[in-house]
């Protein structure tokens, strides 16, 4: 609906890929609804995935023994995180919905997106003990993991060789988003797009556009072990 | 035993950290046994985690639409992967045992190590359909994930707020190592070292050294859903 803000964190090297098209479809559909949509195109930005001392501007809290979690927490509090990180935090802060669009790499997100999680969701900003899980600092936001796979739906079935696809969603949805208090909408999965017809790929794009039409009416999943491991 | 080769892939920014000490202890103990030990110190190497066109030397197989998996597969076959990737592949090829030493970041490995997986374990080298899982191309090798956590053992218990620690091992152990045919030894986990005494941290280092004394007698875990989700 008008006024809602969406951040799409997107990790694919090729605009012509299905991931590129899924991202474009989301921008179009959500904009049409009157949402304000921001895209972090990680490869185009050459986003830095490594968590290093460079993320802290100025002096360290303890330069004798570098502790990334402590240093970024301290730096956040005094406004001393590097500008690429604080810019992403500003986008997250403004967003009502975070969409992560990527190809599944090794049962997880590509390293460039994992680096976005590692560097952006620092203590003080996204969580601050005991404010984690249901009381995480990013509560009242929604998230959605939208991704493509190499393996087929059969391989990712319960009893399939790669196991239920939900098993691999646990670290991303529960370990990251839920930990920060962000509610999780059902994932959107396009299985093995490289092995289907052009027509089937168009159906995949249509299905995503259709889902987005009613996305604001969806209820989050119950992000607990039962959902993942029944 | 003499002659065995070990590759330690290590991801911590600070040599004085517990991860740094765990790495050092492993180098010392395994060298003492007569093993030949190689360390890939990812932060010190400023290892590139991003999967990009730069990983392919020379012309692309299809420059109209960049597909990382296809391009790296083709490049591998003609010896055209970038030198940092092929150097890591050489180390993997020679190793009998791969040890991954890292602090847990967001229920997974730090992005710099995920990038090592994304870029080094390319098709043709580590797997090549249908040679995956038990027939993966890196069979006859062992792997071991050794890591520290922020959360306590209670948080990572079954029924704990963060769920059984085994849940988050699925993508790393099954989705990556098992997929490539690598057998998986039981993980080595140091829970919440930042919240225990210096003496307890010394015990953690000792326990690791002790375990390594008989590491070559260990049997791999049964890397199937039952181990993870019972």
UniProtKB/TrEMBL annotation, chains A, B:
Gene3D superfamilies: 3.40.50.360. Belongs to the NAD(P)H dehydrogenase (quinone) family. It comes from Lophotis ruficrista. Coiled coil: none annotated. The gene is Nqo2. It is found in: Cytoplasm. GO terms for molecular function: dihydronicotinamide riboside quinone reductase activity; metal ion binding; NAD(P)H dehydrogenase (quinone) activity. Its EC number is 1.10.5.1. PANTHER family: NAD P H OXIDOREDUCTASE-RELATED (PTHR10204), RIBOSYLDIHYDRONICOTINAMIDE DEHYDROGENASE [QUINONE] (PTHR10204:SF33). This is Ribosyldihydronicotinamide dehydrogenase [quinone].
């Amino acid at each position: 609906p008008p006024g809602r803000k969406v951040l799409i964190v997107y990790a694919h090297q090729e605009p012509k890929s299905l991931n590129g098209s899924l991202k474009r479809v989301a921008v179009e559909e959500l904009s049409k609804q009157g949402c304000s949509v921001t895209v972090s195109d990680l490869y185009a930005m050459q986003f830095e995935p490594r968590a290093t001392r460079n993320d802290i501007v100025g002096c360290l809290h303890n330069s004798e023994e570098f502790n990334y979690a402590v240093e970024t927490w301290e730096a956040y509090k005094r406004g001393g995180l590097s500008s690429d990180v604080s810019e992403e935090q500003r986008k997250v802060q403004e967003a009502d919905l975070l969409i992560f669009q990527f190809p599944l790499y090794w049962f997880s997100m590509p390293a460039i997106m994992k680096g976005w999680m590692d560097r952006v969701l620092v203590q003080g900003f996204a969580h601050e003990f005991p404010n984690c899980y249901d009381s995480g600092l990013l509560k009242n936001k929604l998230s959605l993991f939208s991704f493509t796979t190499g393996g087929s739906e059969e391989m990712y079935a319960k009893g399939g060789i790669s196991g239920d696809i939900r098993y691999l969603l646990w670290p991303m949805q529960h370990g990251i988003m839920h930990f920060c208090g962000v509610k999780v909408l059902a994932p959107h999965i396009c299985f093995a797009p490289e092995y289907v017809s052009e027509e089937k790929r168009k159906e995949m794009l249509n299905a995503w556009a259709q889902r987005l039409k009613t996305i604001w009416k969806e209820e989050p999943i119950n992000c607990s072990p039962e959902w993942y491991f029944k």
